[in-house]
Amino acid sequence: MKKRSIYEHSSIKQHLLQHYENYLPLLEAEVEREYVKTRFGTTHVLQLGKKGGQPLFIFHGANCINPMTLSWFKPLFNEYRIYAPDLIGHPGYSVEGRLGTKDGSFASWANDLLDHYHIQKTAFAGVSYGGGIALKTAAAYPEKAVCTMLVVPAGIVPFSKWWTARTMMMPYLLYQLNDAAKQRQAITDALSSGCMRDIDEDIMSTILQHVSIEYHLPDGITRQKLKHYQAPTLVIAGDDDVFFPSHLLFKKAVQLLGDRLEWHAYRMGHFPSEYFLEEINRSMASFLKKHY
């Protein structure tokens, strides 16, 4: 039996893959690409940055393409060797079959990639859904995590349904019904506090309208599961994040991570503006210099 595609139509897949290709030059780096076989299927990995540099594994957010959030971290490319896999089950070049978010599947998948590249120790980073994957991987393989950086991460607090509904649900429902530019703008403004890049607006609106959305977020991260994980962890949150607002995230992050936690919160949405990306990269560079 043929597995159902996450894309509404093959033309939608091609449209998003073209956006993927268009995004790669915006990384302003020499990019190597490889397909890696894992126990869960073939994974497309981008490698870039300083050759021979310390490894930094970066996991992108759900329901978007890898280069989109990878581009947030361009200032780190000159200092570290970046490994950025396309998440299995999300738009991109990896296989479309989705992994469980409550078990250890994503951590095992990430470890397969580490083994492929013969990486014994690394820094992890993740955006949103990718932050949850980074933390679950570090918890499952603490001996491999030197430090971890989580930007507007999933996996620490549950999806804030009330907070999201208040700011985003009605525009999203209306957009599903009529594909109106006004509703599209309302959604992207809610995600980014009104500062989303034009190319990202088109990508996100296409995905929201024509791709099977992954609503299940990485969870099941507890203090018990983190008991062997002792690495420093930077958490960067947005006060206006529609999914994981800082006032909810901070309380749980402290409970989970204790004195391992370094915390920064900014007056930003789930998608940071260029100004806040500069602040985020300064925080990450300082954190890496201190702990890596």
Automatic annotation (TrEMBL):
> Start and end of every AB hydrolase-1 domain?
55-177
InterPro entries xrefs: AB_hydrolase, AB_hydrolase_1, AB_hydrolase_fold
Q: What is this protein called?
A: Carboxylesterase NA
